[in-house]
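Lab notebook, bench 4. Continuing the backlog of folding jobs that were queued last week. Each job is logged with the same field layout so the records can be merged later without manual cleanup. Today's entry covers Phenylalanine--tRNA ligase beta subunit, a 539-residue chain. Filled in by technician R.K.

JOB TYPE: sequence-to-structure
TARGET: Phenylalanine--tRNA ligase beta subunit
LENGTH: 539
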Amino acid sequence: MLETGQPLHAFDGEKLRDRKIIVRFAKDKEKIVTLDGEKYDLYKDILVIADSKLPIAIAGIKGGKEPEIDRKTKTVVIESANFNQKIIRKGSKSIDLKTDASLRFEHGIDPDLTEITINRAVSLIQEIAGGKIARGLVDFYPRRALSKKIILDLNYAEELLGVKIPKSEIIKTFKNLGFKVFQSSSQKLKVEIPTRRLDIYLPEDLIEEIGRIQGYKKIPAKFPLAALLPPKRNDQIFWENLSKRALKELSFTEVYNYSFGGEELREIFGYKRGELIEIENPVSIKQKYLRPSLIPNLLVNLKINLKNFSEIRIFELGKIYEKKGKGAEEKRIIAGAVFRKESKSQAEIFFELKGTVDSLLNQLGISDIWYDFYKPTPEESKLSFWQIKKSAEIKIGRVEIGFLGAISSKILEELKINENLAIFEIDFETLSQLCSEEHEFRPLSRYPSAVRDLAVLVPRRVLVEEVLNIINTAGGKVVRDVDIFDIYEGEEMPEGKKNLAFHIIYQAEDRTLNSLEIDRIHQKIIKALEKKLEWQVRK
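JOB STATUS: finished
OUTPUT FIELD FOLLOWS
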């Protein structure tokens, strides 16, 4: 072994049952005592050398005690073999036994060395100890290893090494290494690799040999020759970073959650087992499903932190996973939540979060933002996080990008969270396609503005948007902005009614509005509102 690198093993031929040597995998619960007297339990994936009944050696690792050579030995059977590298490594690790032989087999040995080595061993035995060869060589070689043939492009070798080496030098190098070289074309060589070089598979391996033999020190150092171009911007990452910065500037904290959920969250949010993508090898039972939404984990974040904070503002930008046919679809979603223990009403938080969404979208260069009444489809009605009458669809032009509103009371009860919170969830992939870096500049008016408040009593079914549309239409161009600052549905209100209070900002682009002009327009708005049945402007 030391001379050739090929391990050998010798057995006492008289101790082999039925004079047989078999290579097989160990049977379950088989045992063997090795030459050093150690006892090993064998497993089904360990290769052994056996006689007709029991293992006599752990193949490629260590010989057995039973058929060892002793002073009474008259017949010596020498075994020389070549074993699969992976099988020997796996067997060595499973019984925690490393030997010189196992290390050599793990790294790979030339299969043609078996015959060369066994003949050399027999020759030395006869020369030193005498003896007679009782029988010739018994060879079992079912699939003979063939020499690999690799085509080497000399232009590619020059490109990879960075220096041109004459073809004659390359051919000489290969021949000195024992490779056979055949000319394939003027710029290509066909190289036959001897079976002993198990490390050479690719043209790059041949090029490495050229560099190694020629000497890497002979290759002159050069600066890379390439055009210096600015990196191409990744639009997805650009808009993601801009969105995160915009929300952080609005006092939101970013959270990072695992993309998984468990049985408890599945039941709380009403998913059926087949509706979620189940992981085959989950880390734990609490992480067995891929998340279909960012909202469940955001609510868990809120629940955990309620005892520590009176106000929480968090957001997450990440992937969700939905079943689509036989496969799955990934989407990037951005979602945020606002919770406040001491809040006058849920509406207050809703409109605060609506302002946050408006600000975020404006930062992304989007202005055509509006909110539509949430009308769930029959499929969405079976499974919806949202309170239908307290939620809205977020739209840009005619494109729906997400939702904003209050979470189902049933879900909040299960999680033991009170209802002073609002959440938004936006499809970021759709949103990023609508973003723009172009911002329209509107100069501030040189003329002062005036603010008038207006309160209107309306049926509870009336949407705020409906009232806003009437105010803007009746007020015309001089109504610069309308803000709702209160929604009151207390016990003092008539049954089925609510009070909506607005700030109306009046301002003209070309003149200063006097009080008479403002009063006239304000009265026009009041009359337009009172035309609606069951509506009453409070004075």
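OBSERVATION: The mean pLDDT is 88.
SIGNED: R.K.
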